[in-house]
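User: Can you predict the 3D structure for this chain?
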Amino acid sequence: MTEPAKTPPAGHQPPRSPGTGPEGGAGLPATRRTEAFSDGVFAIVITLLVLDLTNPHYRPGQLGAALARDWPSFLAFGFSFVYIGVIWLNHHALFRRIRHLDLALNWINLGVLLGAVIIPFPTAVLAGAFADGSDNDRRLAVVLYALAAALMSAAWLAAFCYLGRHPELLRAETTPGYAGQQLGRPLTGIGLYALSGLVGWFISPVAGLICIVIMISYHAITSEGLHEGPVGRLLRLLRSPRLLRLLRRDRP
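Assistant: Here is the predicted structure, written as structure tokens:
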């Protein structure tokens, strides 16, 4: 004969499983839907870049020359393809550390996606300016591209600031203080993309583009974080006691 179920005493609360409750993000959605939506946006944006690559008009025997004249379009396409790919890598690395999303973080993520969606526009402007524009047109096109990149960095700054104030949204295995440690990356991006625009306007549009390439490379190398990925491994190697002993041993 089975015993009747015992009624818990008044005020009794059942034990919470790990990761639930206000401290663990109870009631907040997981990241799966947002990640799928974001990946779809990135896929569409990176595909839209190819629409600026059109079949050139040429006379018989002049295809090679016609393709050569379109070099700005090919260069701008490759440039922005890599840039959007780097943004996606950073987005993927961040969301591997996020456990739950709230409304504010969803809006911030939309800001990151807005920055990505904008990229095809300055890409087309840049290609057109270098193909048919004057020197002033090229300078302005570089400034426009640098401005779009700085706005993207501003969205990432908002994301890291918010996660720094709400660590309960991060996974338990995330390094303590992770979000705060990453603030230097978007701050560097905002400052140096602005500097790239100034270099492109006052010095040379080509020099401005080189500065933008350097910054995109920086964000690619640090996509796993300043203290993770290849940068983190290099820093740990440089600080390792074994390397320090070897350096001291080699001193005269």
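Confidence is low (pLDDT under 50) at residues 11-24. Residues 166 and 197 are 34 Å apart (CA to CA).
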